[in-house]
Write a structure and sequence with these properties.
This protein has 188 residues and is α/β, with parallel strands linked by helices. The chain has 8 helices and 10 strands. It has a 10-stranded mixed β-sheet with strand order 1-8-2-3-7-4-6-5-9-10. 37% of the residues are buried.
């Protein structure tokens, strides 16, 4: 697994973004914790993340490439519009979908999807790739999430192409806001 800081990423930007579009599985930082990600429209890559995490149930969330993408694919209520204005930020917003915009392995065939736009430079990479990127914690199911490369599970590490890394993160996961009915804040 190749480890890249932001400056190293910039030197190989086009190649790395192209590999993300093609389905590379990688670690990325956010404004909260590190995520393991891939193109959410690539079935084989999402299956690989499920296998690495040993997570067969529970949907994954995605980082959206743009607000336009969210509005094109999700049902935006008045309450949802208010929450969208809080992005970019440390929130995962769960929307009802207008249409399938990710492979079924992401949301397990549900008509809903958790969406993020982090307040972090990773959002510009996702926007440039112009595809939704799976963003789920870097850990096996029911284990602690990764805060630094030192606590990265070796089996997960073996399945990754690269990590965009910026040192230890001592923050909490994003807050989940369910916008599919009556607005609910889900505590983790």
């Amino acid at each position: 697994m190749r480890v890249l800081n932001f400056d190293e990423f910039k030197l190989d930007r086009e190649v790395i973004i192209d590999s993300i579009i093609r389905g590379t599985v990688f670690i990325h930082p956010t404004d909260t914790i590190y995520g393991i990600g891939c193109n959410a429209q690539n079935s084989n890559s999402v299956k690989k993340i499920r296998k690495l995490k040993e997570r067969t149930t529970n949907p994954f969330s995605v980082i959206a490439p743009s607000f336009e993408w969210i509005k094109e694919n999700c049902i935006i209520t008045k309450e949802a519009e208010e929450w969208l204005q809080k992005l970019p930020g440390p929130f995962t917003l769960i929307f009802k979908l207008k249409k399938n915009c990710v492979v079924k392995e992401v949301n397990l065939g549900l008509k809903t999807l958790g969406i993020r736009i982090p307040n972090h430079w990773i959002k510009t990479i996702v926007a440039e790739a112009n595809v939704p990127i799976v963003s789920t914690s870097v850990n096996k199911s029911n284990e602690d999430y990764m805060t630094s490369l030192e606590d990265l599970d070796p089996q997960i590490k073996a399945g990754l192409e690269f990590a965009l890394y910026e040192g230890k993160k001592d923050v909490k996961p994003s807050k989940i806001i369910d916008l599919t009915g009556i607005v609910k804040i889900i505590e983790r």
